[in-house]
Amino acid sequence: MLRAIAAARTGNTQIVTECLQRLAETIDETNTLLQRMYENCDPYVFYNRIRPYLAGSKNMGDAGLPNGLLYDDGHKPEYRQYGGGSNAQSSLIQFFDIVLGVEHRPTGTSRNDSPSTGDTKARNSFIHDMRSYMPGPHRRFLEQVDSIANIRSFVEARRGDSALCIAYDACLAMLRVLRDKHITIVSRYIILQSRSARQPSQSVNPSVPTTTNLASAAPTDKKKLRGTGGTALIPFLKQARDETGEPAIDAWARRLLSNGPADKKFASLSKVGEQPDGHLEVVGLCGTWTAEENEGGICHW
């Protein structure tokens, strides 16, 4: 893609198109590799034995850490809050977003919301926070690419070139699929496991105190399940996925990839009982209807 950026500067449409086609194929290969997560990683083991160590101390009030952790260096003890492991810390995913011109907003805000003061910084606050957890060379590389990225504007100025536009929109489509698969993994490894963890205790002595899992603490239904990075998990992931399609050149592709209706004749469909914040109401024995091919047919629970 660095070659594509250089080619865009000289107006070489053919090279930019070829690079975008290759990028779409590469992201598709990444999607295939991501599916191997299921081969040797058991959801129960991940959630209960691994994820607690990935949880940070930021936004962890539900776990009894409203101020984070107390760091005592023997001189001046102070509370600090740090995010845990997050997919947003992936240099590769952020690179995809940057070169394709995908922008992300604070969770809960829409594209039509009026920008506030310091819009650029606020819009990318979480993404930029996660960059501070990356190795220095990775962070500086992304900053440099961000300063020279020109692919989106290059394609936008050449709407009449169908091969170029299709290649660009294909990259966005593959990136959206990647985020869809990530949501599926989160649902299986975190959402479903968190519900099992919150089932009433079967202990013969319910008065025996239980420990708090930092990665799953959510004492009431009103509490949002958070990722180890400190975000409201499902709303953040779904919005990031839908924002991926917003830069699409073709209007139909943009509507399809953004998961939003182009007009009143269209309406996006979600799973039965699914709330805007990602909460799923269990209905009957099946609970959740889905069309995902890796979740066992038409329904699973």
From TrEMBL:
Q: Which UniProt keywords apply?
A: Dioxygenase, Heme, Iron, Metal-binding, Oxidoreductase
Residues binding heme b are H182
Q: Would you name any one GO CC term?
A: cytoplasm
Does Thylakoid count among this protein's keywords?
A: no
Superkingdom classification of source: Eukaryota
UniProt key word Iron:
yes
Q: Return the EC number.
A: 1.13.11.52
Q: Which reaction does it catalyse?
A: L-tryptophan + O2 = N-formyl-L-kynurenine
Q: Quick one: where's region Disordered? A: 200-226
Task: Name one molecular function that GO assigns to this entry.
Answer: indoleamine 2,3-dioxygenase activity
Amino acid composition bias (Polar residues), ranges on this chain: 200-215
- What residue intervals traverse the membrane? none
- Return the broad EC class: oxidoreductase
Tell me a GO biological process for this protein.
L-tryptophan catabolic process to kynurenine
Which PANTHER family does the UniProt entry name for this protein?
INDOLEAMINE 2,3-DIOXYGENASE
State the family it belongs to.
Belongs to the indoleamine 2,3-dioxygenase family.
What role is this protein assigned? Answer: Produces N-formyl-kynurenine through the oxidation of tryptophan.
Q: Identify this protein by name.
A: Indoleamine 2,3-dioxygenase
Q: Which organism is it from?
A: Penicillium thymicola
